[in-house]
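Instructor's aside before we start: the two examples that follow are unrelated to each other. I chose them only because their records fit on one page, so don't look for a connection. First example below.
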Amino acid sequence: MHKNWKIQPRDILTAGPVMPVMVIQHIDDAVPLAKALVEGGIKVLEITLRTPIALDAIKLISREVKDAIVGAGTIANPAQLQAAQDAGAVFAISPGLTPALLEAGGNGQIALIPGVATLSELMLGMEYDLDHFKFFPAEAAGGIPMLQAISGPFPQITFCPTGGVSPGNYKDYLQLPNVACVGGSWLAPQAVVAEKNWAKVSELAHQAVANAK
């Protein structure tokens, strides 16, 4: 438990079964996309720092979409973590972890959910009192068999698998006792966003949540 954090990783990962991995190319899409996802039943939104306007999108969504729990993804270093915090994100997700990032996360104001793909990375994160992680890249790193194997020595650790998770396999991941939710880009497909088909985004979100039960 990190006392500086206003919201804990457990709160993020248990707020819903699916978390969209959002790559926002145009700032005008930020708020409509977030609202469409929220209307579809998804409140936790990961906006990746893969585009130049990502931080601006986090600012806008944090301010204008009141029901959204807004976080930043693809955090790779302490400077990006600070920038995400300054933009209004309440959590941050990284593809991997480093001692510098873990140290910054422990001293920061927002929840850090670092990515792991190996037991050594997991054990390093545990040294910083973390017990909730992103498992990435999930399918390439061993998928469901790997998570089942990890649960043996580390039954207290909870994961959000991302990377190769799709409508075809996400329910299988959610059956695992050490998986709280899954992340995926299929919830906000680039082609659908480019068409500004917000009704389709809401439909995809609703289906994903409903089918997860």
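Example two begins here.
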Amino acid sequence: MKIVTWNVNSIRRREAVVLDWLQANAPDVLLLQETKVTDADFPRAGFESAGWHLALHGQVGGRNGVAILARSPIDAVTRGLPGEPDDEQARYIEGRVAGMRVASIYVPNGTRVDSDNFAYKLRFYNRLMAYMELALESDRPLVLGGDYNVAPEPIDVYDPKACEGGICYHPAERHALRGLVHAGLYDAVRAVAPTRRQFTWWDLRGGAWERDEGMRIDFLLLSAPALDRLKNADADPGTRAGKGISDHIPVWCELA
């Protein structure tokens, strides 16, 4: 089973790019973030006509949004994380595909470390951690794909000294991400290539791509039963050089 995570930064703007990539790469599951549409406005027709099953969690106002696309039917769908009943941001969706539990996660960016948005980001991580502690009690393989908006290690940012203490490389964020790992989740790409330097996000402005000033903030995190089935994992930087691209690239893993 090939599972892909991809922050597409607006599915309506990237529909053709995503459909072309799916046809060329033939994954079994695609986990989308930042779809930026309500469920009613998601461009279902093109994906369904290509044989994809959809589970959607959009948000009024065209912000955030996550989705699961799969070649097989998706059941047992859960939308949102417990812990903040008034939270209306669409950032988590989970489902079951061919016996595998998969989730698409869009962690808040945080904006500035002195902002309410940053406090919300840390609370979101705490809620995700609490939920995963229960979810990992199951022996069913679990794959959590998403834009985690944190670069965990110096190798994951273009300039560790310049990035230290800023958004996506703040110690409190890195600590929160490590908590998921310590709870029993494994970074698929790092399990395959512990020292590979491969960013997954570059700012669309200012020539960041051309200078390779990026960060690795998109991951597929695997439970131990999923890790036991891991065959390979990587990212596809070629998508970042095309037309109509997102600022993120697809990250994929293949499970036996």
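The domain at 2-255 is CATH 3.60.10.10 (Deoxyribonuclease I; Chain A).
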